[in-house]
Each structure stands twice: as structure tokens, then as C-alpha cells.
Amino acid sequence: MQLYGPTADNPFINIPARHPFNVFYDLNHEHPYIQYWLDRANRYWLEEFRVDGFRFDLSKGFTQKYTDDDVGAWSAYDASRIRLLKRMADAIWAVDSTAYIILEHFADNQEEKELAAYGQDRGRAGMLLWHNLNRAFSQSVMGYLNDPNFSSDLTTIYYKNRGFPTPNLIAYMESHDEQWLMYRMRAYGARQFLRRAESARGTGSDEAGRGVFLHGARAEDDLAVR
């Protein structure tokens, strides 16, 4: 940045950003210097702080394919993005073969399946994919099970229902990006459903929703330390 500044001539960043929802500068992950910098940073955390792995926020942004503000085009299958993420994963696993790589990806299902399976033929765990079920859990705890506009279907918690060969999905109810289930239930829940919940539990809790939740890291925990 000091050498080139935030200009279109800077080979290390993309101006304008190549994709929607960009935060700060959009790095050019095709550039060998950016790859070198990223690999050194990951190595430092693995060796000096002995973290168990990483959660990469907005991992769908590892691309040089320009999609402007078109979220659908950005989410489509992108072979170049897959290649860049696999390259980074190999560099991480070269330092620690057991390191976790969690992606907040939300891309084409085939792309996510390929990332999940990557490295498993060599004894690696593959990458783990964030699976947002906030809306379905919200509908469930609010008592709107048959709303035609918003599904309450929770069956994709089970990885095989998305066609994944291994359990590499991390399904979650809430994160720092979504409204709390408790708030939605209190503010918008079906009255009849809330009366039944309060009668059964003595509180208007969201225990019914939490009862079907599976194990997983909290969305806020980007780094897990040994």
C-alpha cells in the first residue's frame, strides 16, 4: 500500500472490489506476493500460537472473477476460487496436517462439496463449510412451520441431505450476522405457539429449537487455541 497506494495500478489489491460485501481492501489472491504473505501469516499463527485452525470469513471472496454487486453470479461455481482455496489449504496442512479450515462460503453446492472432500484422499479432514439455518430455526421457534415464503425445513443439518459424502457441514442457528432467535420468537412468534411454549416450560424459551441443534463451534470463534 505504501508503494502503490489505493489505486487501480496497485497489483496487490482490486479497485474496484471484484465481488459484493467487500470489507477494507480486496486482495488479489492470484498474486504470488499475496499468497506468500497469506501463507506466512497462517504459519505464524499455527506455530507461534498453536491454533487448531482458522475460520475464513467471506471465503467466497477468494476470487479474481468480477461480479460487481451480483450475489448470484458471485455464488456460482468458480473453478479459479476452488483452486486458490485448495492452494491455501495445502500450505496450511504442510505446517499442521490436522489444522481445521472452516469457510464461511455460501456458494454453489457442488463447489462446497469439492472443498469439503479436498485432501481426504491424503488423510486430511477436508474443509468445513458454514451452513446457515437461521431462517429455518427462526420459523420453527416462532411456530410458523408452513409459511410458503420461508422454510422451516431443518433436514439439511444432516450432511447427506445436501449430497456431502462426509459430515463437513457446520450448521448453525445464530451468528453475529443474524437476529437472535429469542428476540424473533418474542417479537413475532405465533401467539398460540407462544402460549403453548410458556405453559410447557414456564418461560418463552427457544429450547425447542436448541433441542435439535448439533455440536459445532460458535460462529464468533474464528480461532480455536490448543
Secondary-structure blueprint of this entry?
Elements: E1 13-14, E2 26-27, H1 32-48, E3 53-56, H2 71-75, H3 79-95, E4 100-103, H4 109-117, E5 128-132, H5 134-142, E6 169-172, H6 181-188, H7 191-201, H8 207-210
Parallel strand pairs: 3-4, 4-5, 5-6
Antiparallel strand pairs: 1-2
Helix pairs in contact: 1-3, 5-6
Count of separate DSSP helical elements: 8
Beta content comes to 5-15%
What's the helical proportion of residues?
Answer: 25-40%
Shape: globular
Q: Class by helix and strand content?
A: alpha/beta
- Helix and strand element order: EEHEHHEHEHEHHH
Roughly what is the average pLDDT, rounded to an integer?
A: 88
Quantity of strands, as a count? 6
Q: Biggest sheet: strands side by side, in what order?
A: 3-4-5-6
Multimeric state of these chains?
single chain
What would you report as the Rg, rounded to the nearest angstrom? Answer: 20 Å
Main beta-sheet annotation: 4 strands, parallel
Low-confidence segments: 214-226
Distance between the termini: 34 Å
Describe the structure.
- By secondary structure, the chain is of the alpha/beta class.
- Helices cover 35% and strands 9% of the residues.
- The chain has a four-stranded parallel beta sheet, covered by helices on one side.
- Helix 5 links the parallel strand 5 and strand 6.
- Helix 5 runs parallel beside helix 6.
- It is globular and about 65 Å long.
- The relative contact order is 0.12.
